[in-house]
Each structure stands twice: as structure tokens, then as C-alpha cells.
């Protein structure tokens, strides 16, 4: 498993939960969590495949920013 990290502009637990629900619907074989305490509000995803484009699509459709670190 690889861990991908994304810098985001998600600020609340509710926003983070809704993003995770959408991502898990699309990428069901991954483990993911937000670190909202970090100043970059990091989303970490454990995966075995390239999911960057799918992550960007979900964030953009929901009106949020993310950048792979």
C-alpha cells in the first residue's frame, strides 16, 4: 500500500465526512482520513493504484481545492 497525501481547503468535520463518503463510493478499496488539525488540512489515502484524477474530480465538483503532496 502507498499513502497519498493531499493538501485541501476543507475546514469542518462535516465537509470532510461528505468528501470521504463520495470518495469511498468511487474508490471503495482505499482507506482514507482527514487531518484537520494540520494547517494544510491533509487528506491521506492508502491505495495500490493511481487515484489522483478521481480525487481531483470529486474535490472540484464539490467546490473544494486539493493538491497532491
General description of the model:
- With 69 residues, the protein is of the alpha+beta class.
- It is 35% helix and 30% strand.
- It has two helices and four strands.
- A four-stranded antiparallel beta sheet has the order 2-3-1-4, covered by helices on one side.
- Strand 2 (31-35) and strand 3 form a beta hairpin.
- Helix 1 (13-26) packs across helix 2.
- 20% of the residues are buried.
The global form is globular
Q: Total strand count, please?
A: 4
Pairing-aware structural class of the strands and helices? alpha+beta
Task: Determine the strand fraction and express it as a percent band.
Answer: 25-35%
Distance from N terminus to C terminus (CA atoms, Å) equals 17 Å
> What's the gyration radius in Å?
11 Å
Note the total helix count: 2
Mean pLDDT: 95
Largest sheet: 4 strands, antiparallel
Question: Which stretches of 5+ consecutive residues score pLDDT under 50?
Answer: none
Give a quick summary of the entry.
The chain is an alpha+beta fold. 35% of the residues lie in helices and 30% in strands. The chain has helices at 13-26, 52-61, and strands spanning 2-8, 31-35, 42-47, 66-68.
Amino acid at each position: 500500500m502507498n499513502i497519498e497525501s493531499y493538501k485541501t481547503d476543507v475546514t469542518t468535520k462535516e465537509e470532510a465526512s461528505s468528501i470521504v463518503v463520495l470518495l469511498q463510493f468511487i474508490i471503495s478499496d482505499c482507506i482514507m482520513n482527514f487531518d484537520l488539525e494540520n494547517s494544510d488540512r491533509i487528506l491521506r489515502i492508502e491505495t495500490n493504484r493511481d487515484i489522483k484524477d478521481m480525487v481531483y474530480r470529486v474535490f472540484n465538483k464539490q467546490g473544494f481545492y486539493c493538491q497532491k503532496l
